[in-house]
Amino acid sequence: MDFIDFIKRRNLTRYVVMVLLGIALILILQKLFVLAVLMGASLALSFLVGTYQMSKSFGIELVVFTAILAGFAFGPTMGAIVGFILIVTHLVIGHFAAGAYILWVVPMYTALGFIAGTVSGFDFVTLGIFMTIGVNAISIFITAVTYVQNLGNYLPYSITNIIFNVILFTQLGPWISALLV
Fold first, then answer.
1. SS3 54
2. Which burial class, exposed, middle or buried, applies to 147 when counting CB atoms under 10 A from its CB (0-12, 13-18, 19+)?
3. 3-class DSSP state for residue 55?
4. Phi and psi dihedrals of 117, rounded to 5?
5. Helix 173-180 vs helix 151-171: crossing angle, to nearest 10
């Protein structure tokens, strides 16, 4: 009671309440902050790839990881929105191919985030690895059917994308999912 009396005598009640509300707000926004940082990192990586003409044969991007995380932690709608925003900006900022390619890539990455928010029974790491392999397998199949001449260029991208995302999910996934779930 001495502490409470001290606060009342010094007229510190409103400051204590403000600090407690601030702490509560930080805890609530922590999840959104982590997602915002990952989205920013994804956009920065896309910018680096596009600006410095880094090889597009390497599947190093954060769109898959971030879209799956958004769906898993915040639900299917947020996953779909994040997947859509990130893949569109990744394609534009990174100067990736346009044309018919975007007709399946944009919906697929939007669906990736959505599905991550609806699937249950998997931990974040396992779900992320399965979905990474799945999205790349579907992309390889569609590329083979529609643009067989590009398959030789796409396979190295897809293989390195799977490796990169498996590393992300196994190394960062447990830590990030513990923060958000």
1. coil
2. middle
3. coil
4. -85, -10
5. 60
Residues present in the chain in total:
181
Residue with tokens 């590329």: 143
Confidence of residue 10 (pLDDT cuts 50, 70, 90): low
Half-sphere exposure of 160 (CA within 13 A, CB side): 13
The single-letter DSSP state of residue 12 is -
Q: How far apart are CA 61 and CA 42, in angstroms?
A: 7
Radius of gyration of the chain from its Cα atoms, rounded to whole angstroms? 21
Supply 143's token pair: 């590329």
Neighbours of 109 (CB within 10 A): 26
CA 160/CA 27 separation, integer angstroms: 36
Evaluate if pTM is beyond 0.85.
no
Tell me if 128 sits within 8 A of 176, measured CB to CB.
Answer: no
CB 161 within 8 A of CB 60: yes
| 41-54 confidence digits (pLDDT tens) | 998 888 887 777 66
Task: Spell 64-91 as b/e; 16+ CB within 10 A means b.
Answer: bbbbbbbbbbbebebbbbbbbbbbbbbb
Q: What is the number of other CB atoms lying within 10 angstroms of the CB of residue 131?
A: 24
